[in-house]
Amino acid sequence: MPNAAISLRLQINGHLHDLTVEPRVTLLDALREQFGLTGTKKGCDQGQCGACTVHVDGQRVLACLTLAAQVEGRTVTTIEGLGEEALHPVQAAFLEHDAFQCGYCTPGQIMSAVACIREGHAGTDDEIREYMSGNLCRCGAYPNIVAAIRQAAEASR
Ligand code: FES
Ligand code: FES
């Protein structure tokens, strides 16, 4: 028997949303299926690939391992909320450096990269590789991803 639905109020990309879901619903499924925010990708759905990376209160989290109920009262930012007015500098750097091929991993890479720079973990290419290691790219665009993050990090200093 399904668990009783719960009512939540979530702040996503600056907007408040009311939501009624079963307690087991992940933030990833809520974003994609309830709010149509399909920029956040479902890769492995088990915390292995980083495709579902979003920010909660400015920190990067894996939306597939986070319950929607856990983020009530907190601030969620997805790739759709990152560059609403103009491209975020990290988005622009990814474009400039051709840091994607199929693009499936790209929203997660960008959300992770923004946080990585903010955390101060983008000082060298090795550091970028280490702190971006949770974001996999099956197309192997890693050299260009690192170059894009390096440029965005340098521009932010
Ligand atoms: S879909 Fe969340 S880590 Fe792969
Ligand atoms: S660009 Fe295709 S998986 Fe990364």
From TrEMBL:
InterPro entries: 2Fe-2S-bd, 2Fe-2S-bd_dom_sf, 2Fe-2S_ferredoxin-like_sf, 2Fe-2S_ferredoxin-type, 2Fe2S_fd_BS, Aldehyde_Oxdr_Iron-Sulfur, Beta-grasp_dom_sf. It comes from the Bacteria. Residues 6-82 form the 2Fe-2S ferredoxin-type domain. Keywords: Iron, Metal-binding, Oxidoreductase. PANTHER family: OXIDOREDUCTASE WITH IRON-SULFUR SUBUNIT (PTHR45331:SF2), OXIDOREDUCTASE, IRON-SULPHUR BINDING SUBUNIT-RELATED-RELATED (PTHR45331). This is (2Fe-2S)-binding protein. It comes from Dongia sedimenti. The lineage of its organism: Bacteria, Pseudomonadati, Pseudomonadota, Alphaproteobacteria, Rhodospirillales.
